[in-house]
Each structure stands twice: as C-alpha cells, then as structure tokens.
Amino acid sequence: MALRHELIRQGNFLFRNRSYLPLTILITGLILYVMKEMKNPPIDDMSVRIFELACFVVCLTGFLVRAITIGYTADRTSGRNTHAGQIAESINTTGMYSLCRHPLYLGNFIIWLGVAALTQNGWFMLAFMLVFWLYYERIMFAEEEFLIEKFGNDYLKYSGSTPAFIPNFKKYRRPLLRFSLRKVIRQEKSGILNLFAVFLLFRGLGEYITHSLQHVEIYWIVGFGSALLYYITVKILEKKTNLLKTDRHGQ
Hints:
By secondary structure, this protein is mainly alpha-helical. 68% of the residues lie in helices and 0% in strands.
C-alpha cells in the first residue's frame, strides 16, 4: 500500500476512534499525578490552587478557540464531521479558518495541554505533544485528502495560503456568518462537563491521598454540578424543543 493511502487509512481509523486519545492522556496523567502526590505531598496549598486555576484557564482558552470556530461556521461543513465519516458541503475559509486550517484541533490541543500540565511532569507534557501531533497529523491528512478530492483547486488554493495548525494572524478574514451561540451551546455541552469532571477528579484524588476529601475546593464541586445541570438541560431542549436548532448555509 502506498504511503499516501496508508496515511489516509490510518487517519480515517483514528478519526473514528478519536475519543480514545483523551482517555489515554487522562489515565496516564492520573497515574503520574497520584505517584507524585504520594511521593511529594504539596506543602503550600495556595500555590497548588493557583497552579490548578492557571491550568484551568489554559483549558478555557482552548474552549474559547473552539467556541469562536464553531459559532461562525455553517452547518455540514469541513468544521463538523461525524463518527461515520467526513461531511463537507462547503469549505470554511474565514474567521478562525483564515488563521489556520484546523482550528478545532488547535483548540483541542490547548485544552489537553492544560490537563497534561496538571501532572507537573515535564516529560509527560513533551510526550503528550509528540503523541498529539502524530495522532492528529494523520487525521488532518485524511480530512484534507477528502476535501481536495471534493473541492479540488478551491481547497488547494486555500491550503496553499493558510497554515495547517499554527495560526497566522496576518491572514485573518472576518466571518461571513453571524455568531451562533445556539450552535456552540449544542456542540460543546459534553466538553464543558468533561472539563469540570477532570479537574474535580484530579483535585479529589490529590486531596484523598494527602488530606481528605473535605479539602476539595467548593468551586470545583459547584462547577461540576453546574456543568452537569447545563448538560442535562441542553439534552432536554434538544429532544423536546427546536430552540437549539440552526439552519446555517455555507459560505
């Protein structure tokens, strides 16, 4: 099999199973975090809280990148694919897609960089960045082959002037569509819940090992409870009403 076809095959496989990478990062990070807490319990609780909040801000930055990307894209475009395969009725070339070709994956990287930093293990963070790049490089390759096959020179022209992953802010073009908060709410409900769950899990394990669960900060508990309520509410609205439905045509 030619290398090109092998990369496409690998990319499609990894795309269909892309939820396993975060799970692997989480499990490995938790193991390293527990080992660190058992060996060197934190002395200054304030410094621990500040560091965890800094990691949380990094994650929120990644969600902001995703939200801006999703909010300005049309339905059924290169910005939204499914488990079954690729979907693209038009090419996204403005907004975040004018800065780089894969802004959603950039957002994912920033989110999981914040989670990886919770381990306070520099080697793990370097390993995460390498694995993330090897993993998503194949997914991006497969996606772009699909878009080239469907849109031909239009996509080749766009990709020739737009970086793949690292944004070039000089290339920014204003979105043609208005921002859709409903689309962001609908698509990011699971991510917000998972984010608070991960931080509560790390903090809970750390306190269980070093002190007791009574020392877990109330804001993580309230945050997780609020995120869970938000998730349930959005799911109900999706099933029972049309409030979160959108009909946004391509650019």
